[in-house]
Amino acid sequence: MCLMQTQIATSRFTSITRWFVPIAALLVMAAWFYIAPEGALGKLDAIGYAVCHRIDARSFHIGDRQLPLCARCTGEFFAAGVTLIFMGFVSGKRSKLPSRRIIAVLVLFFLAFGIDGSNSYLYLMKQTAEGAFDKIPNIYVPNNTLRLFTGSGMGIALAAVLYPVINQTLWRELDHRPALNWKSFGILVTLIMVLNLLILTEHPVILYPAAYISALGTLSLLVMVFAILWIIIMKADNTYENIRQLWLPLASGLTLGLLLVVSIDLLRLTLTGTWSGFPGIGG
């Protein structure tokens, strides 16, 4: 009897969830559209605003208009978005992490990101807190080119590890092959390097898609992480057989991801009063 009652309660909870999640998603999306700046790029700004400092001098521009994310975050989330799309086509349901040698390269990407980010942060502190950090030497003068490339390396590393973890959580029948081999990894890195060089031209034809991919890549990572968390909490891991069955976890991930974005946006907007970079920081 206890088992039957548990099954009935679980069925009711699932039914309620199927109604609640889409409604919650629509409400959160409505709130996000309401508070975000006007226009399509304004909506992308609201996503970038939740994760990026958006300092004007450290960003690429379409004419006089700043991209939704700074150069480093553009590289990171643009590369993450491209990597997820690439692996979706190439890797399918492969669920094993890349080989140790590829992981070692990804660790190097991570270290480059950390070194360049720390050096860049120190340079910023020297500009904003006069005299406080003058005795600490910079390794080199930071620039947007290095920010873009080191950010891209970090984006590749994030997505390359996240993708097989997602597959390990989702599918009933797993493909135990590595999600990336040297051939696909080489193609991926070359593709992103070429795209980075195109971004450095700062041509609007390139920067518009980069703005969309980087901002939506940011949101996609949040959606996937929260969707996986929701699946684990609901004890639904390794129960899915095809993509169509994922609508509820993805809707839940979108709801939680946008809720986080809206919360950070409102907090930051309240504290700073601007959708641009932090006041007084322009280096």
Layout: helices, strands, pairs:
Blueprint: H1 2-35, H2 40-49, E1 61-62, E2 65-66, H3 71-90, E3 94-96, H4 100-128, H5 144-170, E4 175-178, H6 182-200, H7 204-233, H8 247-272
Parallel strand pairs: 3-4
Antiparallel strand pairs: 1-2
Helix pairs in contact: 1-8, 2-7, 3-5, 3-6, 3-7, 4-5, 5-6, 5-7, 7-8
In short:
The protein has eight helices and four strands; from the N terminus they run H-H-E-E-H-E-H-H-E-H-H-H.
Question: How many beta-strand elements?
Answer: 4
Q: Hey, roughly how much beta strand do the residues contain?
A: under 5%
Helical percentage: 55-70%
End-to-end Cα distance: 67 Å
Strand order of the largest sheet: 1-2
Output the structural class: mainly alpha
- The helix count comes to 8
Measured on Cα atoms, how large is the radius of gyration? 21 Å
Note the main sheet. 2 strands, antiparallel
What's the structural domain tally? 1
In N-to-C order, the SSE pattern is HHEEHEHHEHHH
| Bulk shape | globular
Low-confidence stretches: 3-10
* Average residue-wise pLDDT: 88
